[in-house]
Design goal:
Elements (H helix, E strand, L loop, with lengths): L4 E6 L14 H15 L4 E6 L7 H6 L4 H25 L4 E5 L8 E2 L2 H9 L3 E5 L9 H11 L4 E6 L4 E2 L11 E2 L1 E3 H6 L7 H9 L4 E5 L5 H6 L6 E4 L2
Parallel strand pairs: 1-2, 1-6, 2-5, 3-4, 3-5, 6-10, 9-11
Antiparallel strand pairs: 7-8, 10-11
Length: 236
């Protein structure tokens, strides 16, 4: 395996599948199958998932809700998705440990680097919900922060497209895919890979990002094996 310890970042919207809201059991099973496959090959995996399929704090703020209150509601949505991942993974026989940016007993303990690393070394999949535990930070930023703390080799951003393009490939059929990008190139070209806070953390800590299509069976395994199926963003 090219990567021994990964942090997989998934969007909450990806769990909706063809639905307009909530959690698709089909997508949940697909993602957990993919995680199980790399887990069984000895990869130490941590997972951070967003909550946009349930609630987004920014949307509530735009409609007049207090931003801080809305962000905490969004954090709770990520906990719901994390519980769904935990339940399906354990149904498939994969041991897990759920941590949160927020301490919500008895559902999950608050995140600590030491406990998370111990769980990874004990051959458990670590799921981290609740964002950073603070308002005004996205799950992109939370995922990068946790990846740095656990000393992940790479952050894998699972999306519904197979990499980073010169334009939105769903809108522009002439868009070209990048195989490799430097952090500076991505910034200069104003490519929306992660929010700027998350991206700056990756750049400052030399944490590579790999963007790939999570919805295709076997892709997660291909990425950790080092196959070129997406876009690598790194220091060059």
């Amino acid at each position: 395996m090219k990567y021994g310890r990964i942090l997989l970042k998934l969007s909450g919207e990806s769990l909706m599948g063809e639905q307009s809201y909530g959690i698709s059991s089909q997508m949940l099973t697909l993602y957990c199958n993919e995680i199980k496959r790399v887990y069984e090959q000895g990869v130490e995996a941590a997972v951070v998932i967003g909550g946009g399929n349930i609630y987004r704090g920014m949307q509530g703020s735009a409609k007049g809700m207090d931003r801080v209150q809305g962000d905490y509601m969004g954090m709770m949505a990520t906990i719901i998705n994390s519980l769904a991942l935990q339940g399906e993974l354990e149904r498939q026989g994969v041991p897990t440990e759920l941590f949160g940016g927020l301490n919500i007993e008895p559902i999950c303990r608050s995140f600590s680097r030491r406990r998370a690393v111990q769980a990874l070394e004990a051959k458990k999949v670590v799921i981290i919900g609740g964002g950073t535990g603070n308002p005004f930070f996205t799950t992109d930023t939370a995922s990068v922060l946790r990846a740095i703390e656990i000393k992940a080799d790479i952050i894998l951003k699972g999306t519904r497209v197979d990499g980073v393009y010169t334009a939105d490939p769903e809108k522009d059929p002439s868009a070209q895919k990048y195989s490799v990008l430097s952090f500076d190139e991505a910034l200069n070209k104003k490519l929306k890979i992660m929010d700027l806070t998350a991206f700056a953390l990756c750049q400052e800590n030399n944490l590579p990002i790999y963007v790939f299509d999570m919805n295709k069976e076997g892709n997660l395994q291909s990425v950790v094996q080092g196959q070129d199926i997406g876009t690598l963003v790194c220091k060059q």
